[in-house]
Amino acid sequence: MSRALLSLLPLLLAAACNKGDDGYTGEDTAGNPPFTATLPNGGCGLPEYGWRSDEDLGEIVEWEELRDLNFTAEALNAALMSFDLGAVATATYDVEVYRVRYVTQDKGQRVEATALLSFPVSDDDSVIIAPTMLWMHGTTGFTDECAPSALGVEGALFNIVFSGHGFVVAAPDYLGMNGFGAPAEALHPYIVAEPTAVASLDAVRALYRFSAEEANRLTSQPSADLVMWGVSEGGFAALWADRYGEAYLPGHRINGVVAAVPATDPTHLAKLGVTTYGDTSLAMAASLATQNLWYGEPAPLSDALNDDAPGYPATSLLTELGASCSPDVPEQVVSVETLFQPALVDALVNDTSFEPWSCYLNQGALVGSAIPRGSNAPVLIVTSELDDLAQAAPVHDDIAPLCAEGYNIEHIQCAGASHVSGAVDSLPYQLEWLKARANGDEITGSCVAEAPRDCLSL
Fold it and tell me: What are the φ/ψ torsions at residue 198 (nearest 5 degrees)?
């Protein structure tokens, strides 16, 4: 998705009408009321830990206004029209963008994470009460310099577009990706449900806290009506933030969830990745490597990844993930045999257990999760017929079982589309769908995997 929309950057930069040429930095230490989640956590051999019960979740540690990213609606619409995205070139608000460093928790410990916040600006300085969006980005990397809040216009583009359409947006960078301030202590845990959902939901807390504390400088305030939107890894994040939402972030109405080209069953994806070499294989290797880190490395990575391939020990993947936001695939990695250990491949192909790796993957499966879903928000799932990364088949298989658990799912499959193009082609529909949910409009999802269709004509 980002590949196409990032082509907007040169025009955005040239056409932007900035509201100022410097930033404003502040700090805040106000606390939230005490809160304790009552949810399962950890697993896969992690020592027992409790959820934090304190007053600082979402506390703003530091913030900056990113004035060079503040755009007028006119400039934004001109850019969108020039790149044949006229269906979303209907922004009616100027936009202000901030980045914040906030308090969240990880395995019961206080940690800090970063996020982008963006706000629509009223044209007469009256205060707008706007619907709230939790936007969760696709994979940008695994370390601090890859955080969207560190990437300027490239990282803030989606916030700008959505706030131009009237949403107050919180966009977490995810755990392990600190866009400014002190560095993260470990790589981003990739496709791990608990830390992804928790840090994302605490970004919403940070949004509400920041909005209240800086109300005198803002012309919009977030309502308690919350929608969630994510693409690729962000689609996984959106589905899990919704799953945790009612129990972890009470008091906020989740009105709708969009998950574009998501993963819903990492085990099924891993099975595909170890049988046919391709993008899914590489993504699952990165996931297993960072999952093992998050779970405390109960087993050597060489149990799962091939350390004996000529010229390339696959366990060096962790070093490469920490060194570049776009690591190159070594020329020696040409097959599943050069990437994975036979024992892992055999277990996935034959549906047998291979611990702790099987546990890691199972913890990310929505169907049958131990995390109860309190939300009844309708869900739009978009898949791409020719997706070679987050392949569509596992998602299609999960739709009916998820609906049996109480989900209300509308599904769209984009015909002839790749991982990126399906998300881009259906972008206008996704935006209008979420606007309708924010307005309280209901849907009756079919709860079936739909046949491919032309998503450009939605």
Answer: -65, -50
The yes-or-no verdict on residue 15 having pLDDT over 80 is: no
b vs e for 52-90, b when ≥16 Cβ sit within 10 Å of the residue's Cβ?
beeebbbbbbbbbbbbbbbbbbebbbebbeeeebeebbb
CB of 259 within 8 A of CB of 230?
A: yes
Domain ranges of the chain: 2-260, 266-363
- Rounded to the nearest 10°, the torsion over CA 402, 393, 330, 348 is 70
Distance from C-alpha of 196 to C-alpha of 173, rounded to nearest angstrom: 10
Place of tokens 């044209």: 123
**Percent share of the chain, pLDDT over 90:** 77
Please compute Rg for the chain using Cα positions. Answer: 21
Dist. CA 134–CA 117, nearest whole Å: 10
Q: Describe the strand order of the beta sheet including 220-231 as a list of residue ranges.
A: 25-26, 60-65, 94-106, 109-121, 168-172, 128-136, 220-231, 253-260, 379-384, 409-414, 452-453
Contact predicate 85/110, CB 8 Å: no
Alpha carbon distance 396, 1 (integer Å):
20
**Cα 295 from Cα 278, distance rounded (Å):** 26
Largest CA distance in the chain: 66
Mean pLDDT across the chain, nearest whole number? 90
Q: CA 53, CA 37: separation in Å to the nearest integer?
A: 8
Q: What is the pLDDT of residue 16?
A: 39
- Domain 2-260 belongs to what topology? Rossmann fold (3.40.50)
Task: Express each pLDDT in 211-253 by its tens digit.
Answer: 999 999 999 999 999 999 999 999 999 999 999 998 999 888 8
